[in-house]
Amino acid sequence: MRKREESESKRCAVYARFSTDQQKETSTESQVAVCTNYLNKQADWTLVAAPFCDEGISGTGVGNRPAFLAMLDLAASGGFDVLLINDLTRLSRTVDLPVTIADLQAQGVVVIGVQDNFDSRSEVAVLQASFSAVSSHQSVSGTSKRVHAAHQLMVKSGKHAGGCSYGHKIIHVPHPTERDRFSGLPVIAEKRIEVDVEEAKVVERIFTDFANGLSTTAIAARLNAEGIPSPGAAWERKVRRVNRGWMASTLSSDPERGGGILNNEIYIGKYIWNRRRSVKIRSTGKTVWHDNSPSVWEREDRPHLRIISDDLWNAVKKMQAWRRSSRGDAISKGIADGKAKRRGGADSRYLLGSLLICGSCGSRLIGDGALDYICPAFTCGGCDNDLRVRRDDVHREVFAPLHEYLFSEEAIARQQARARMDLERMRREEQKASTKPVVTKAIQAIDEQVAALRKLSLGPAALNAVLAELKAERAELEAKAGDRAVERYSRAQRLIDRLPETAAKYRKVITQGAKALTDHAAICAGREAIRKLLKDGTIVLKPNAPHTSLVGAVRFAELGDHVLGLTGSQRHVKALVNEKALMNQEKGIMVGVTGFEPATPTSRT
Ligand SMILES: [Zn+2]
After folding, report:
1. Same structural domain for residues 445 and 587?
2. Which band of pLDDT confidence, cut at 50, 70 and 90, is reported for residue 111?
3. Structural domain range at position 458
4. Which residues pair with 14 in a beta bridge?
């Protein structure tokens, strides 16, 4: 370790960072302990501020590290003389590490890494910082692979990797001896998942109710009526997200992907992992998740996480199969041609089905009955938007500006003229810029070969012969590059010329979708065409104060905003108190008297 005599008094700060995407990281508590331990061995050093700790934050971005920025602020105001860190990677894992250290030095701050013997005053400091930055930058690039390997290790050893389902809780196992120097609390040695007794009761009830014939909508409605907090209520604390209470989709979304509580095998003690993979966006330090195909999912037995019996699980699977088949009989004729399978509610059978968003809760409006759109969360008691609006009204209001502005001959002629002008201007600008000949990669390669050849001790005759050949090849490439530019412009020209035709095609697709009642493919095509024209791909509608109409704006990419006002009628609140009646009603659905959820299935087209 360091053996330096520090006679003068120093004001110190400690910075610690713990990142969840690295497999072997020590907690901020133990990093702080290492630093303060070191500080206490110096004669006259004092800590001037509480340790700056960033938790669960990766070392590749800086903007999302609040404690780090606070520490820099204090340094800038001359608040301390020495910054203590566990090791250099705590400050940064990217090439900006040397810059950060230089900045701190410029403010008179000495940086000391206790574990890696770094001292910004030493002669090799810059070198050491650069090496650390380069090597840990590379290791971050390999992180996703290593995260998978680390998960595998943790799963095999029975430990917790990743998230926690409803019905389970994460237990932080304290270290038997190690304690946090500041709080005096034990350091967390390990995280484990266990069954949460209260939530487990709810899970069991959900499975039992569904097996007994209640629909997911009815179950969600009852849970909300009883005020039982939904899984979303817990997420809300961490993620900014509207809590809509229990929804039918919380209970079951996509069975093939294990979506929803009723499809999650964890409740029969099967732990599935590797469902998703993470990809790090370098510039922001953020992690983006992608779904893995079920074929690469990995399963592990976790008997202690089981909440329901195999019998109950199988009963639910049977009921799901029965509901699928009964839905098929009752309404599939009306919806799809069999090819277009509905999955997780993704493909609405109504033209604006997935484009309309409830402004009160953020749910997608769904078609209800023969004529209306409604907010599905209202049925479950999770939203106060009690309005039903006529689908025809909505469609008409959305189409009006399209017909009037976007698809009128005059509007198209205007756009054509503008596009031609743009193209002409671009061509002129490019010509001006390209007074020097176009250089492509291939041409560059030839130039390099020529340079290399000139260095060889070839006789002049041989050299000239080779050079002449290369020169010809180069000229040919140059001509081609020029052709390509011309080709690009004539293609753009053709596209502009065809604009009326393209618009007509668009108009036809949308009109057909609007007219179609049962042709699923036509409806989907029409919806896609409209989605492409919308600025955010959605239309948000919110009830006005007296709850008489839904209001909102259609924001077209080309045409600006058009305000919608749709008169609606208020819906009746479903009586939830009389459970027996509800059960009977659901049983009615079971024997095929009515149809399939949601509430008014008989009049579906
Ligand atoms: Zn709503």
Report:
1. no
2. very high
3. 409-504
4. 84
326 Cα to the center of ligand 1, angstroms? 28
Distance from the CA of 482 to the center of ligand 1, in angstroms? 57
Q: Give the type of residue at 72.
A: L
Q: Please check the confidence at residue 163 and state whether its pLDDT lies above 70.
A: no
Spatial CA neighbour of 213 closest among 584, 581, 576, 577:
584
Bridge partners of 186, per DSSP, are: 179
Distance (angstroms) between ligand 1 centre and the Cα of 226 equals: 19
- Do 136 and 204 lie in one domain? The reply is no
Cα 549 to middle of ligand 1, angstroms: 14
* Residues 187 and 329 grouped into a single domain: yes
Residue 187 CA to ligand 1 center (angstroms) comes to: 44
**Distance separating alpha carbons of residues 181 and 201, to the nearest angstrom:** 40
Cα(377) to centroid(ligand 1), Å: 5
What pLDDT does residue 99 have? 75
Range with lowest mean pLDDT among 45-54, 286-295, 414-423, 474-483: 286-295
Using the mean position of ligand 1's atoms as its centre, give its distance from the Cα of residue 321 in Å.
Answer: 29
Is 573 contained in some domain? no
* 3-state helix vs strand vs coil in the chain, percent to 5: 50, 20, 35
Q: Is the dihedral of CA 415, 421, 425, 430 positive or negative?
A: positive
Q: How far is the CA of 552 from the centre of ligand 1 (A)?
A: 14
> 13 C-alpha to center of ligand 1: Å?
49
Return the ∠ at Cα 290 (arms to 285 and 293), rounded to 5°: 155
Backbone angles phi, psi at 379, to 5 degrees: -55, -35
Q: Which amino acid is at 386?
A: D
State pLDDT tens for residues 307-352: 999 999 998 998 888 777 655 443 443 333 333 334 333 456 788 8
Rounded distance from Cα 384 to ligand 1 centre (Å): 6
| Across 111-115, 155-159, 249-253, 600-604, least confident range | 600-604
E strand spans, 385-457? 387-390
**From the CA of 376, how far away is ligand 1's center (Å)?**
7
pTM higher than 0.70: no
Interval between CA 355 and ligand 1 midpoint (Å): 14
Residues 107 and 177 in one domain: no
% of residues, the chain, pLDDT over 90: 8
Instruction: Assess whether 46 and 176 both reside in one domain.
Output: no
Q: If you average pLDDT over residues 379-400, what whole number do you get? A: 84
**How far is ligand 1, taken at its centre, from the CA of residue 559, in Å?**
27
pLDDT digits (tens, 9 = 90+) for 68-97: 888 988 988 889 999 999 888 888 776 677
